[in-house]
Amino acid sequence: MNNKIRVALLGLGNVGENFAEHFLEQIQEGQRPIEIVAVAHHHTDSPVALGFAQSGVPVYKDATEVIKMGENVDIIFDLTGNTEVRQNLRKGMMDSGNKHTVIAPEVFANLLWMFFGEDVVLTRRAGGY
Question: In terms of C-beta density within 10 A (0-12 exposed, 13-18 middle, 19 or more buried), how is residue 52 classed?
Fold first, then answer.
Protein backbone atom coordinates (compact mmCIF):
# COMPACT_ATOMS: atom_id res chain seq x y z
CA MET A 1 0.00 0.00 0.00
CA ASN A 2 1.32 3.43 -0.96
CA ASN A 3 1.13 5.86 1.96
CA LYS A 4 2.26 8.87 -0.07
CA ILE A 5 -0.07 11.81 -0.28
CA ARG A 6 -0.36 12.74 -3.96
CA VAL A 7 -0.81 16.46 -4.56
CA ALA A 8 -1.57 18.61 -7.60
CA LEU A 9 -0.79 22.33 -7.59
CA LEU A 10 -2.94 24.50 -9.85
CA GLY A 11 -1.83 28.05 -10.58
CA LEU A 12 1.89 28.78 -10.45
CA GLY A 13 1.68 32.56 -10.47
CA ASN A 14 2.94 34.68 -7.59
CA VAL A 15 1.08 32.78 -4.87
CA GLY A 16 1.40 29.34 -6.44
CA GLU A 17 5.09 29.68 -7.23
CA ASN A 18 5.96 30.82 -3.70
CA PHE A 19 3.82 28.09 -2.22
CA ALA A 20 5.27 25.40 -4.52
CA GLU A 21 8.88 26.34 -3.72
CA HIS A 22 8.35 26.29 0.03
CA PHE A 23 6.13 23.22 -0.10
CA LEU A 24 8.82 21.31 -2.02
CA GLU A 25 11.41 22.47 0.49
CA GLN A 26 9.30 21.16 3.36
CA ILE A 27 8.76 17.84 1.58
CA GLN A 28 12.45 17.36 0.82
CA GLU A 29 13.94 18.60 4.09
CA GLY A 30 11.45 16.71 6.22
CA GLN A 31 11.47 13.67 3.97
CA ARG A 32 7.68 13.80 4.00
CA PRO A 33 5.66 11.10 2.22
CA ILE A 34 4.18 13.65 -0.19
CA GLU A 35 4.49 13.61 -3.95
CA ILE A 36 3.57 16.39 -6.36
CA VAL A 37 1.94 14.44 -9.17
CA ALA A 38 0.78 17.30 -11.41
CA VAL A 39 0.86 21.06 -11.79
CA ALA A 40 -1.12 23.44 -13.97
CA HIS A 41 -0.38 26.94 -15.11
CA HIS A 42 -1.53 28.93 -18.10
CA HIS A 43 2.15 29.69 -18.86
CA THR A 44 3.61 26.20 -19.29
CA ASP A 45 6.89 27.78 -20.34
CA SER A 46 7.40 29.62 -17.04
CA PRO A 47 10.58 28.68 -15.13
CA VAL A 48 8.67 26.97 -12.32
CA ALA A 49 6.48 24.98 -14.74
CA LEU A 50 9.54 23.96 -16.74
CA GLY A 51 11.28 22.91 -13.53
CA PHE A 52 8.41 20.60 -12.67
CA ALA A 53 8.36 19.23 -16.22
CA GLN A 54 12.11 18.50 -16.05
CA SER A 55 11.45 16.57 -12.84
CA GLY A 56 8.92 14.40 -14.65
CA VAL A 57 5.82 16.05 -13.18
CA PRO A 58 3.02 16.47 -15.74
CA VAL A 59 2.34 20.15 -16.46
CA TYR A 60 -1.09 21.13 -17.76
CA LYS A 61 -2.12 24.41 -19.36
CA ASP A 62 -5.76 23.80 -18.44
CA ALA A 63 -6.14 23.26 -14.70
CA THR A 64 -9.24 21.12 -15.14
CA GLU A 65 -7.18 18.48 -17.01
CA VAL A 66 -5.99 17.29 -13.59
CA ILE A 67 -9.46 15.83 -13.02
CA LYS A 68 -8.64 13.12 -15.57
CA MET A 69 -6.03 11.76 -13.13
CA GLY A 70 -8.94 10.59 -10.98
CA GLU A 71 -8.09 9.02 -7.66
CA ASN A 72 -4.37 9.22 -8.47
CA VAL A 73 -4.55 12.67 -6.86
CA ASP A 74 -5.40 12.97 -3.18
CA ILE A 75 -5.39 16.76 -2.84
CA ILE A 76 -5.73 19.45 -5.50
CA PHE A 77 -4.46 22.82 -4.29
CA ASP A 78 -6.37 25.39 -6.33
CA LEU A 79 -4.11 28.44 -6.18
CA THR A 80 -5.50 30.03 -9.34
CA GLY A 81 -7.68 32.56 -7.57
CA ASN A 82 -10.18 32.00 -10.36
CA THR A 83 -13.72 31.17 -9.23
CA GLU A 84 -14.62 29.79 -12.66
CA VAL A 85 -11.73 27.31 -12.48
CA ARG A 86 -12.84 26.24 -9.00
CA GLN A 87 -16.43 25.74 -10.17
CA ASN A 88 -15.26 23.73 -13.19
CA LEU A 89 -13.06 21.58 -10.95
CA ARG A 90 -15.96 20.82 -8.63
CA LYS A 91 -18.28 20.06 -11.53
CA GLY A 92 -15.67 17.84 -13.18
CA MET A 93 -15.13 15.94 -9.95
CA MET A 94 -18.85 15.37 -9.55
CA ASP A 95 -19.27 14.34 -13.20
CA SER A 96 -16.38 11.87 -12.93
CA GLY A 97 -17.74 10.32 -9.72
CA ASN A 98 -14.43 10.96 -7.92
CA LYS A 99 -15.27 11.04 -4.21
CA HIS A 100 -11.66 10.56 -3.14
CA THR A 101 -9.84 13.72 -4.24
CA VAL A 102 -10.16 16.88 -2.15
CA ILE A 103 -9.99 20.36 -3.67
CA ALA A 104 -8.16 22.69 -1.28
CA PRO A 105 -8.61 26.41 -1.93
CA GLU A 106 -6.04 29.13 -1.20
CA VAL A 107 -7.13 29.43 2.42
CA PHE A 108 -5.65 25.96 3.06
CA ALA A 109 -2.43 26.99 1.34
CA ASN A 110 -2.34 30.01 3.64
CA LEU A 111 -2.87 27.75 6.63
CA LEU A 112 0.05 25.52 5.64
CA TRP A 113 2.14 28.59 4.83
CA MET A 114 1.87 29.65 8.47
CA PHE A 115 3.61 26.40 9.45
CA PHE A 116 6.43 26.93 6.94
CA GLY A 117 7.96 29.51 9.30
CA GLU A 118 8.16 32.16 6.62
CA ASP A 119 8.05 35.85 7.45
CA VAL A 120 6.68 36.66 4.01
CA VAL A 121 2.91 36.87 3.64
CA LEU A 122 1.46 34.67 0.92
CA THR A 123 -0.39 37.22 -1.22
CA ARG A 124 -1.56 37.60 -4.78
CA ARG A 125 -0.39 40.29 -7.19
CA ALA A 126 -2.99 42.26 -9.08
CA GLY A 127 -3.97 40.50 -12.29
CA GLY A 128 -4.55 36.97 -10.99
CA TYR A 129 -2.43 33.87 -11.33
Answer: buried
Closest by alpha carbon to 64, among 47, 78, 74, 50?
78
- From residue 111, alpha-carbon distances to 97, 104, 117, 125 in Å are 28, 11, 11, 19
With 50 as the cut, is the pLDDT of residue 59 above it? yes
The answer on pLDDT for 25 being more than 70 is yes
Q: Which burial class, exposed, middle or buried, applies to 31 when counting CB atoms under 10 A from its CB (0-12, 13-18, 19+)?
A: exposed
Please give the residue range of the domain that contains residue 29.
Answer: 6-115
pLDDT tens string 67-107:
999 999 999 999 998 999 999 999 999 999 999 999 998 88
CATH number at residue 16: 3.40.50.720
> How many domains, the chain?
1
Judged by DSSP in three states, 36 sits in strand
| Residue 127 pLDDT grade (very low, low, confident, very high; cuts 50, 70, 90) | very low
